[in-house]
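ok so dumb question maybe but i'm new to this and my supervisor (M.) told me to 'just get the structure for G-protein coupled receptors family 1 profile domain-containing protein' and walked off. so i did the thing. is this what she meant?? sequence i used:
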Amino acid sequence: MDYFASELLAAAWWSYMRIMITISHVFISTSAFLICAAAFERYITISKIACQFARHHRLIIIGACTVIAVIAKGPMYFEVEVVPNANCTGVTSLTAIPSEFSESEPYKTMYK
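this is what came out, is it supposed to look like this??
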């Protein structure tokens, strides 16, 4: 967008930026939770404590990790607003700012 000074690329970027940032953060959190679950499963397997539980419930654990990540990071979509950039044209005609929702209580205290 900046290199080619393309307004078409700028419009594409601003149209999907919020959803892509949210999705990427959900997947980053999911992968961190799954690494913790894998480490816990490894511990259970090595210590011979309820070895079959973790093996038979992997899909449930994956689903739970995904749901927790969506609950934790899903609201990021509402944290940013794309607004017109005053006195700017072309690729800089839009900008992202923190939304009022992200600055209000209790969201600010709980999620930030």
